[in-house]
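note to self — DONT lose this again. spent like an hour looking for the file last time. sequence + predicted structure for the chain T wanted, 230 res
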Amino acid sequence: MKIVICDSHRVFADALASLLHGAGHEVVGSVVTLEEAAEICGPAHVDACVVDLRPTRTGRRPDVAQAVRSAPGTVFVALSASADAATLRQAASAGAGGLALKGDDFGEFLRVVTETVSGQERGAGPKPATQVVLSRSARAALRAGEGVTAGPSQFLTEREWEALGRMVRGESTAGMARAMGVRVSTARTHIDAVLSKLGAHSRLEAVAYAVREGLVDTSGWQREKRAVGI
């Protein structure tokens, strides 16, 4: 599939693009606004545009309805880190063919995109809201009438989760390497990957983010198992 990503969170967009490339799909553009996305979709014959529902700097949410009209050959999958039921329903009513949350694992997200594109191929035009493809967590959010939050931390590997937890505990790079049974250079690689994926500029900033979001158990390095509404 040819896919455009519309998300102002560059770290998240880059991580998602990497995963899509790894799954054999082509990301033909990564942009910030839906206007930019629509300009790419028509000439490039894009299959799907993944759009973040987060409000822009103006305080308005992306105009999905206008984008759908501007690129009738492209399906739009609304993706949000924090979306309540009303926002999800609004996106569906505006013409989004699929709804997913940033808390979904990549396989679930890709299923939504694939089924949305496949559904478009079987019939022209946007689908009624009742036929929108939903991820499990998006469906749960709609049923419960409340949002589900997530963020770029979903892209951390298990080793990176461990490194983050050990950073929270204040372990040095050398101490972390010994505890993990790896070389110091490998420990540094895990730390750099954590900083990059969280969009942090220092270990302190990454630790502050992890503690604030409750990502790890501060008494150890274990990842917190938080429900995502499934």
